[in-house]
């Protein structure tokens, strides 16, 4: 999903970009995902305590820094040291970070984009980032409803997961999330990739969770 957004941003602005996702729930911050070698997969964007993403999670409103050099020169602060210089050294000059509410636990997610050229994080980029942030938050919520590993016996285990199970899981996700078939299949593919397991196995897990939720009075629809 991040890579899709970065491709759109690059096409609209003509500049390369990388992105990260952080989240906060019940007072705990964690790094969710990143795309790109310079910021998204290094400690520069992951291990720091302060940065655009933490400001967004604190204030729950977008942060737009059109030119990092001017921003820092105008108002340097002690919290900038951990992220500002590494961001500039990595070749980025513009930053936009946007929040999105998490349905489960009253938390929030922060999507941060790092762009190479100053002045490229205009209103269109901010608008698209906000839309993608909502999708990312929805995916985080969905992921948190599905256990990473299934405990106990699985119905029809002797037959094993099949393509029919995938179709069943797609239907479950379409009903629960109110999304289309393509988006539901994309969600399953993302979960399978993150967990390193076959698509059919993850689909079986989704269906099993839905059945258990119905049987004990809960459902995936609950936030």
What does this protein structure show overall?
This protein is α+β, with helices and mostly antiparallel strands. 48% of the residues lie in helices and 16% in strands. The protein has helices spanning 2-13, 43-46, 52-59, 68-74, 84-89, 123-145, 163-177, 181-195, 199-215, and strands spanning 17-25, 28-35, 63-65, 94-101, 108-115. A 5-stranded antiparallel β-sheet has the order 2-1-5-4-3, sandwiched between helices. Helix 7 crosses helix 8 and helix 8 (181-195) packs across helix 9 (199-215). The longest helix has 23 residues, at 123-145. It is elongated, with a radius of gyration of 19 Å. The two termini are 22 Å apart. Residues 74-78, 149-159 and 213-223 have low confidence and may be disordered.
Helix content: 40-55%
Strand count: 5
Tell me the number of helical segments per DSSP (H or I, 4 or more residues long): 9
Rg: 19 Å
Q: Distance N terminus to C terminus?
A: 22 Å
Mean pLDDT: 75
Question: What coarse outline follows from CA principal-axis ratios?
Answer: elongated
Low-confidence stretches: 74-78, 149-159, 213-223
Helices and strands, in N-to-C order?
A: HEEHHEHHEEHHHH
What is the topology, as strand order, of the major beta sheet?
2-1-5-4-3
User: What structural class do you assign from the helix and strand content?
Assistant: alpha+beta
The largest pleated sheet is described as:
5 strands, antiparallel
Write the topology of this structure.
Elements: H1 2-13, E1 17-25, E2 28-35, H2 43-46, H3 52-59, E3 63-65, H4 68-74, H5 84-89, E4 94-101, E5 108-115, H6 123-145, H7 163-177, H8 181-195, H9 199-215
Antiparallel strand pairs: 1-2, 1-5, 3-4, 4-5
């Amino acid at each position: 999903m991040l890579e899709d957004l970065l491709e759109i941003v690059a096409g609209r602005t003509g500049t390369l970009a990388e992105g990260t996702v952080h989240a906060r729930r019940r007072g705990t911050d964690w790094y969710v995902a990143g795309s790109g070698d310079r910021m998204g997969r290094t400690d520069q964007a992951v291990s720091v305590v302060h940065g655009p993403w933490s400001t967004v999670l604190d204030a729950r409103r977008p942060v737009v820094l059109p030119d990092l050099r001017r921003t820092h020169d105008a108002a340097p602060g002690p919290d900038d040291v951990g992220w500002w210089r590494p961001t500039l050294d990595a070749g980025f000059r513009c930053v936009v970070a946007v929040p999105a509410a998490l349905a489960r636990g009253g938390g929030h997610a922060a999507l941060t984009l790092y762009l190479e050229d100053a002045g490229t994080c205009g209103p269109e980029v901010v608008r698209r980032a906000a839309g993608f942030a909502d999708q990312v938050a929805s995916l985080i919520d969905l992921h948190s409803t599905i256990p990473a590993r299934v405990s106990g016996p699985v119905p029809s285990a002797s037959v094993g997961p099949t393509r029919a199970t995938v179709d069943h899981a797609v239907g479950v996700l379409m009903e629960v999330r109110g999304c289309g078939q393509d988006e539901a299949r994309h969600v399953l593919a993302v979960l399978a990739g993150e967990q390193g397991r076959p698509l059919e196995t993850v689909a079986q897990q989704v269906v099993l969770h839905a059945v258990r939720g119905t049987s004990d009075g809960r459902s995936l629809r609950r936030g």
